[in-house]
Amino acid sequence: MAKWCVIVGMGEGNGMAIARRFAQEGFAIIMVARNEQKLQSYQSTLQTEGITSHYFLADAGDEAELTAAFTQIQDQWGTPEVLVYNAAVPRMENVLQTRYETLVNDFRANVAGAMACIQAVLPAMQSQQQGTILFTGGGFALYPQPDFVSLSIGKAGLRVLVNTLHAALKGSPIKVGTVTICGTVNGDDPKYSSDRIAEQYWQRHIGDDLDYETLY
């Protein structure tokens, strides 16, 4: 029976690197995002590399779409062993220009969508007494920037969500953690390449669940 890693907010950078890293360890990949054309491209690329993958359409800011996607995933493939929440709205907009609606809409994808995914997989993981839930954090949670106010608020909110979930599940076999990326992803950077970052997710999955956060 295949082990499944679900990546919500699948993208060509960290998302693909995480998919490849977990596939190296025998995982099949389930991708969730809203752009079907991109998902088809990722699936085609992974297929040429011998990696089994499937995709489901859902906007990370839409609870109903996420819930429907996870219902289909679990009906077809069972409970995922690993969930990676990699979705975010990387909006560059100064705090002095940001509108109420912008903050609320972005928060849905940056934080609330993560909660919807947690609620979709956690009961089954608890029933099976195994599972890992990982989140892509960001340095803006620690060092907020006025030109990225929405993303700064989102990453701070996500960090608190992971902290409290980790505490609530203390002593449980379910692993919970964030990989907080404190730099700019760059394939030419010896530290912040997507492949190096993906390794942090794998180490978080196989390591001891001592703290909610991996700072990288």
Please describe what this structure looks like:
With about 220 residues, the chain is α/β, with parallel strands linked by helices. The protein has a single domain (about 5-215), classed as NAD(P)-binding Rossmann-like Domain (Rossmann fold), CATH 3.40.50. About 45% of the residues lie in helices and about 20% in strands. Strands 3-2-1-4-5-6-7 form a seven-stranded parallel beta sheet, with helices on both faces. Strand 2 (about 25-35), helix 2 (about 35-50) and strand 3 form a beta-alpha-beta unit.
Identify the notable features of this structure and list them briefly.
single chain, 47% helix, 216 residues, alpha/beta, seven-stranded parallel sheet, Rossmann fold
Brief synopsis:
By secondary structure, the protein is α/β, with parallel strands linked by helices.
> Largest sheet, if any?
7 strands, parallel
Q: Averaged pLDDT, please?
A: 95
- Outline, from the CA principal axes? globular
So how many helices?
6
Strand order of the largest sheet: 3-2-1-4-5-6-7
* Helix and strand sequence: EHEHEHEHEHEHE
* CATH H level, superfamily name: NAD(P)-binding Rossmann-like Domain
Supply Rg. 16 Å
What structural class is derived from the secondary structure elements? alpha/beta
CATH architecture: 3-Layer(aba) Sandwich
* Count of domains: 1
Low-confidence stretches: none
Query: Which percent range fits the helix content?
Result: 40-55%
CATH topology: Rossmann fold
Percentage of residues in strands: 15-25%
Kindly, what is the distance between the CA atoms of the first and last residues, rounded to a whole number of angstroms? 33 Å
Mind telling me the CATH class? Alpha Beta
The tally of strands reads 7
